[in-house]
Amino acid sequence: MRSLVVISLLLALVAYLFSELTRPDLLLVGTITVDLVDQDGQRPGGAVSYAAAVLKAYGIRACVVTVAGPDADLSVFRGHELHVVPSPSTLTFEHSYAWFGHQRKLRVTANPNITLSRRHVPRHCQRARTVILGPLTLHELDAASFLEYDGLWDQLYRGRQAVGLMAQGFQRRLAADGRVLPLQTPSPQLLAGLGHWRRVTLFLSDVETETWAEDWLGLVVGAAERVLITRGAQGATEYNDTGVTAIDVVPVDKVKDTNGAGDTFATGYMLALSRGLADPAHHAAWAASRAVMQPQSCKPQCAGDLIAGHVPPWGPADRLAGAWRGLAEVGLGLVEAAAREGLAALMHVRRLPAGALAAAVARAAESELDGEGTLGEGELGRVRSGAGGGHGKGQAKGQAKGGSAGGKGHVLSGQEGAGASVAEARRLREEAAAKDQWQSAGR
Ligand SMILES: *[C@@H]1O[C@H](CO)[C@@H](O)[C@H](O)[C@H]1NC(C)=O
Ligand SMILES: *[C@@H]1O[C@H](CO)[C@@H](O)[C@H](O)[C@H]1NC(C)=O
């Protein structure tokens, strides 16, 4: 009897290791673009094309799922397993440079408006160890679908995945004439894309987040596994369970062009993370530094060329080591979850009810329109206090901080009660409009 149990456990282990060895390394999802640049015509662009070029440099053959029309240049995906969702046109961005090339204005002139979701992804690609999502517009990608499982078998089949969301596109909207305009608070698409289980590694830049009140940042950080905000020449910031860490840039002799630096950072980070490298953030900064040493004229194809050869390819031994790590993490996760549940019960911390975040955003947007109340503060308090209702704001905050199982107290403590007022939000928006500061997409 006992030997039967041992034998089935061993068989399960062998099956697990075998399935880990045969799993695709990476799934990359997002729409490719045609970028019209005034001086030198037309070239492919978008987060996925930079990510694909960088992945190739790492020696990774990824599953790529993209939307493209007949006019798209798909050469940047050569060497990957490509699945194209056909469309009459390709997402087209018209770039015009102002401020002597430092400020970029963007306008969408063709938009397939197809929402990519997990159902567009072939079954075997859904099992990829690492998933990178790179939406460029609000409606282009159903990020939450990649976090959902169709039952227990699907959960076992797809197993633990590292999910990276390059969310720049979720923080801008299109004006009626196609101009790309920044959003001032986290979009419902972004919040939905983080799911319920704090599994997502979120990448944004300072351009998207500079107008966020501290509380919004706290909310997003609390809902993600980690958040990385890139800051151009100032490096980046990582928010995670350890706290807030500044990440220095890796200096280079000459910065030739910063296009794709953010996408390269995110791709390098996710690869380092899934390979278990000691310091993924530093590795990501190094990868980004290689990308800015390349001139714009050869991008996106050449974005990863200086990375190639510096990182040994990932062999079966590494995959097995990764599988062991995964197994250990699952074990530790179970222990930790049990401990956390116990702690939570002890401290009466409540879990957020499903849909609470999205509802709070919708309410905040409404009250902003009505011109009453403060942006977010009351709503955030209500969200934090969970379904319980009847909690004072102070107590809600106390709970959010006390719930150090989430480990995010420090993020909220900085500017206690500093929710930006509607007037403040309006002022920021007017300022932005006055400067005619359209979203700059460089980072
Ligand atoms: C794209 O489709 C969504 C619905 O899926 C719609 O709300 C949105 O307005 C569309 N955007 C454009 C630019 O057509
Ligand atoms: C948080 O980020 C820092 C900087 O990248 C890193 O050193 C630390 O290990 C991270 N902690 C967790 C729990 O991921």
Description of the molecule:
By secondary structure, the chain is α/β, with parallel strands linked by helices. It folds into three domains: 1-23 and 314-348; 26-312, 3-Layer(aba) Sandwich (UDP-N-acetylmuramoyl-L-alanine:D-glutamate ligase); 356-442, no CATH class. Helix content is 39%, strand content 18%. The protein is built from 15 helices and 15 strands. It has helices at residues 2-21, 47-57, 123-126, 151-158, 188-193, 206-209, 214-223, 261-274, 280-292, 316-347, 356-370, 377-384, 393-402, 409-413, 422-434, and strands at residues 26-29, 33-37, 41-45, 63-68, 81-86, 91-98, 103-110, 130-133, 162-166, 172-174, 180-182, 200-205, 226-230, 236-240, 243-247. The strands form three sheets. The chain has a nine-stranded mixed beta sheet with strand order 5-4-1-8-9-12-13-14-15, with helices on both faces. A hairpin with a 3-residue loop joins strand 2 (33-37) and strand 3. The relative contact order is 0.12. One 2-acetamido-2-deoxy-beta-D-glucopyranose is lined by residues 111, 113, 115, 139, 174. Residues 226, 238, 240-242, 245, 281 line the site of one 2-acetamido-2-deoxy-beta-D-glucopyranose (NAG).
